[in-house]
Amino acid sequence: MSDLRNKVQGINPDLKAQNIKSFADKSANIYEAINIIAKRARLLSTDLKIELNGKLEEFAVNSDRIEEILENKEQIEISKFYERLPSPSVIATDEFLNDQLEFRYRDMDNKED
User: Fold this and answer.
1) Alpha-carbon distances, residue 6 vs 9, 12, 86, 97, 109 (angstroms)
2) pLDDT number for residue 40
3) What Cα–Cα distance (Å) separates residue 85 from each residue in 22, 42, 102?
4) Residue extents of the structural domains in the chain
5) Low-confidence ranges of the chain (pLDDT < 70)
6) pTM exceeding 0.85
7) DSSP-assigned letter for residue 87
């Protein structure tokens, strides 16, 4: 997953308008392209959430008293880093438009067998 963090740091986290025809050029139609991007975004979201939770578990405090909870600068920096990353949908869209995603039709694979 660390390679994903390095790869997405070059992506602009801001949303920008996209040419709809560029989506249709990469797949059979626009709706199919959006479905592909959405599935990849869900996968990225899950992976990033698991990675972030794993890192934050190291700082978990097992006490019932609120007074004992201290601010940890490392924990704050980790959280800020993940907040600055582009959203999974922006990452997935960038991957799709740059031909970094491979997709296939499940029904077509079954017919070939």
Assistant:
1) 6, 13, 12, 19, 33
2) 93
3) 24, 15, 23
4) 2-112
5) 1-7, 9-10, 61-71, 108-113
6) no
7) P
Please compute, for residue 11, the number of CA atoms within 13 A of its CA located in the half-sphere on the CB side. 23
Contacts of 69 (CB under 8 A, 6+ apart): 61, 63
List phi, psi (to 5°) of 86: -65, 155
* Token pair of 62 as six digits: 């097992």
Instruction: Tell the residue number behind the tokens 């139609």, with chain if given.
Output: 29
* 3-state secondary structure (DSSP) of residue 94: helix
Distances (CA, A) of 14 to 20, 53, 73, 107: 18, 24, 26, 36
> Residues 99, 26: contact at Cβ < 8 Å?
yes
